[in-house]
Amino acid sequence: MQPIVFVLGKPGCGKGTTCSYLSHHLPVQHFSAGDLLRQEVQNPRSLNAQIILDDMKAGRIAKPEITVQLLREAMEAHPAAKAYIIDGFPRELEQLEFFKQQLDVERCFMLHLNCSDEECFTRIHGRHSNRVDDNDQTIKNRLQNFADETLKVINLFKHQGRLMEVNANADKLEVCQNAFRVIQSLVGIRK
Ligand code: C5P
Ligand code: MG
């Protein structure tokens, strides 16, 4: 199976922006776990729409089986990709375990977009989204989740020598270009 790069960072750190830049400049297929969950909420035939929405509104992490199933389907629909970039996943160790049980992962790495809480708050306040979870209380819950759960996953990759970090407090283009260099040298691919 193709290499996978998980892109993690606090809410508002620029995961979506950076991954969209990467997928335009490299032959990689990008999926956002959060976007796949939001699409599922909009799917009238989904049996999980309401429970996902409730978790999102509260800033809680959705059941791992739901997110992993959505990612698996998305990846299977793009078998020709040279590499997959997955943003916002795995948010916790349990999601990572589920993913490894379901998919035959040989090479996986992590890019951490390292950003301060203050900068994340400022960016989310500035993005004028109509997301159900971009209010102050839910942003706090999401940042707390990051500190309690996601950091454990990041530290695991660090101990395994599979972690790369980019300073995400910098300006957008600089963050994107630094991430590009890191990913290009890692997966050794060119468009
Ligand atoms: O990554 P993003 O900020 O778009 O995620 C929004 C919300 O989607 C999270 O706060 C969480 O409720 C849910 N989510 C999740 N598991 C993931 C990614 C997102 O439960 N791996
Ligand atoms: Mg996002």
Task: Show the helix and strand layout.
Elements: E1 4-8, H1 15-25, E2 28-32, H2 33-42, H3 49-58, H4 64-76, E3 83-87, H5 93-102, E4 108-114, H6 117-126, H7 136-159, E5 163-167, H8 172-187
Bound molecules: cytidine-5'-monophosphate (C5P) and magnesium ion.
Cα distance, first to last residue?
19 Å
Q: What is the total tally of β strands?
A: 5
Oligomer: single chain
Structural domain tally: 1
Overall pLDDT: 94
Q: What is the CATH topology classification name?
A: Rossmann fold
Please state the overall shape, judged from the principal axes of the Cα atoms.
Answer: globular
> Could you name the ranges where pLDDT drops below 50 across 5 or more consecutive residues?
none
Which CATH class applies here? Alpha Beta
Amount of beta strand: 5-15%
Helices and strands: which structural class?
A: alpha/beta
CATH-assigned homologous superfamily: P-loop containing nucleotide triphosphate hydrolases
Count of discrete alpha- or pi-helical segments spanning 4 or more residues: 8
Radius of gyration: 16 Å
Describe this structure as you would to a colleague.
The protein is globular. The protein is built from eight helices and five strands. It has a five-stranded parallel sheet with strand order 2-3-1-4-5, sandwiched between helices. It is 54% helix and 14% strand. The chain has 191 residues and is of the alpha/beta class. The structure holds cytidine-5'-monophosphate (C5P) and magnesium ion (MG). The site of magnesium ion has 6 residues, from helix 1.
